[in-house]
Write a structure and sequence with these properties.
With 169 residues, the protein is mainly α. The protein contains 4 helices and no strands.
């Protein structure tokens, strides 16, 4: 009896005649290439290559020249290089834009968390200030005790002044 695959059984991978490539690896390679194209080293290498090509095909003996003036083959090679470089540079820029977008979203989320933390701390400080307004401080208690001591001293002085009069009666 043949068993039918259920939802809990993964499908077998389909086989294809198309080449299988990892877009992430291709993207990293294209970024490295695009980064290299933007360096002074590449410009120097390319200038040396073109100068060598032109000088060889002008100075070398006729039978050793492979691309005589107007250097059609050199033009073809440079056009081919440019036709591949432009899309690779665009791919690298798109990947960089994606990374920038992700970084921007992470920064925005971090800023939102910081704002929320700041608002929380502001509310906590405000509640502490309100609570401190209801708490007696050391200076407040000293002043109150000092005032009470003065009142007691006044009352005692009054009592002492009035007592000799009452004793005489």
């Amino acid at each position: 009896m043949a068993r039918v695959n259920g939802l809990d059984t993964p499908r077998e991978a389909r086989r294809s005649l198309r080449p299988n490539y990892d877009p992430e690896v291709f993207g990293r390679i294209s970024e490295k290439f695009a980064r290299f194209l933007g360096t002074a080293r590449f410009l120097v290498y390319m200038s040396v290559f073109v100068l060598s090509w032109v000088i060889w095909n002008i100075v070398a003996p006729e039978r050793l020249r492979f691309d005589s003036y107007p250097f059609i083959f050199l033009t073809l090679i440079l056009s081919l290089q440019a036709s591949y470089a432009a899309p690779l540079i665009l791919l690298a820029q798109n990947r960089q834009a994606d990374r920038d977008r992700i970084a921007l979203n992470e920064d925005r989320a971090q800023n939102n968390r910081s704002i929320a933390d700041t608002e929380y701390l502001t509310r906590e400080i405000a509640s502490l200030r309100i609570s401190l307004g209801e708490v007696a401080t050391r200076d407040f208690i000293r002043n109150e005790i000092g005032d009470l001591a003065k009142e007691l001293h006044k009352d005692r002085s009054k009592d002492l002044r009035s007592k000799p009069e009452t004793d005489a009666n």
